[in-house]
Task: inverse folding
């Protein structure tokens, strides 16, 4: 199948390399040094799903019409990336692999003639260096397109992508986006401190802050009437349990997330943006919780404080010590 991957960074590069390895005709978009490296030595995949060098066609924009496309940019870049490809994407299934709550709706509005499918990656990947990506935690990709039974496009993507990585279609994609937003509560602390997700969750004080921001986010979602979708054993009842538990008990959920990540250090996608001097997605992660709280007329002070600290690191380029994070946020717990 002719497959286009728009924004072949950590996630898109992994998807492109795996689909190339299984025999598809893959074209990717990339820029700068990353594009030069893919063109000269190929797109190199390593880590949990094995090694492969994909000699794929690469340019700043797709050069030919694919039969299936993946948009794998960060949330803040997706609209621009889609607009550059509107004509090529018309009429085909387009998979939006993105964290946050808005990716699928935004793409569907920009591409009224395409069958847009949302994808939530529970696996983790890192951009190591130009031309090189690595899977740090293999796991499942959840697919859907709103609420209700999977569409034909979702089933097609489940078949094509499911041949190279574990995939599951869901009939509560909106609820699953919310559950993924809860999983992404682990992203802010690495971006603030420069530590891996596992290191931040191993630190008792930082873990309690992550637990408190998770609990606050779950409470906001419940107030908004969300029914969480089930992702990898994280279910609506478990998240409701977090909402009503003391932090010392609720921390079992971040601890489980840490265990699932395994031992390979996972910086998370937000710290990776910081390391490359790029804007982060934080306004679409903890920021989405703060926005939803504001719409409900309630406060989400811990999520707001984490957003503020991530923006501070983006602007100064200096990580914040765990001690300062604890001093800043402890009064809010
Ligand atoms: N990394 C991970 O482990 C996970 C990430 N996710 C989510 O997946 C999505 C992708 O994340 P990730 O792969 O980490 O991000 P990356 O930053 O590694 O990759 C995004 C790519 O998009 C490119 N890009 C940016 N703007 C455009 C544009 N206008 N046109 C074409 N390409 C563009 C970037 O290029 P350039 O660098 O030149 O700007 C970059 O190569 C995010 O929503 C993230 O939250 C979900 C689960 C896990
Ligand atoms: C799944 C997880 C938490 C992997 O790190 C992720 O979504 C991210 O890094 O953005």
Result:
């Amino acid at each position: 199948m002719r497959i286009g991957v728009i924004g072949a960074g950590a996630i898109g590069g992994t998807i492109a390399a795996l689909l190339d390895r299984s025999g598809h005709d893959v074209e990717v978009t990339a820029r700068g040094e990353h594009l030069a490296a893919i063109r000269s030595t190929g797109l190199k995949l390593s880590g949990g799903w094995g090694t492969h060098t994909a000699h794929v066609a690469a340019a700043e924009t797709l050069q030919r019409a694919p039969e299936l496309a993946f948009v794998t940019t960060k949330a803040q870049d997706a609209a621009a990336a889609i607009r550059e490809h509107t004509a090529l994407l018309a009429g085909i299934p387009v998979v939006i692999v993105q964290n946050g709550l808005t990716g699928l709706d935004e793409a569907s509005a920009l591409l009224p003639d395409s069958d847009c499918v949302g994808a939530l990656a529970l696996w983790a990947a890192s951009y190591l260096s130009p031309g090189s990506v690595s899977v740090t935690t293999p796991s499942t990709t959840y697919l859907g397109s709103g609420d209700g039974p999977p569409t034909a496009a979702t089933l097609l993507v489940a078949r094509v992508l499911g041949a190279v990585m574990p995939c599951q279609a869901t009939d509560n994609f909106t609820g699953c986006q919310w559950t993924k937003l809860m999983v992404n509560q682990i992203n802010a602390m690495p971006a603030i401190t420069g530590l891996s997700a596992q290191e931040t969750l191993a630190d008792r004080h930082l873990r309690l802050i992550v637990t408190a921001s998770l609990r606050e986010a779950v409470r906001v979602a419940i107030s908004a009437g969300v029914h969480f979708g089930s992702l990898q054993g994280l279910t609506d009842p478990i998240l409701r349990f977090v909402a009503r538990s003391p932090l010392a008990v609720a921390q079992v959920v971040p601890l489980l997330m840490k265990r699932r990540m395994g031992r390979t250090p996972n910086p998370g996608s937000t710290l990776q943006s910081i390391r490359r001097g790029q804007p982060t997605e934080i306004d679409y992660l903890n920021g989405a919780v703060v926005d939803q709280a504001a719409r409900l007329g309630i406060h989400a002070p811990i999520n707001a404080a984490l957003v503020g600290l991530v923006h501070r690191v983006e602007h100064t380029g200096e990580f914040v010590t765990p001690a300062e994070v604890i001093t800043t946020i402890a009064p809010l717990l």
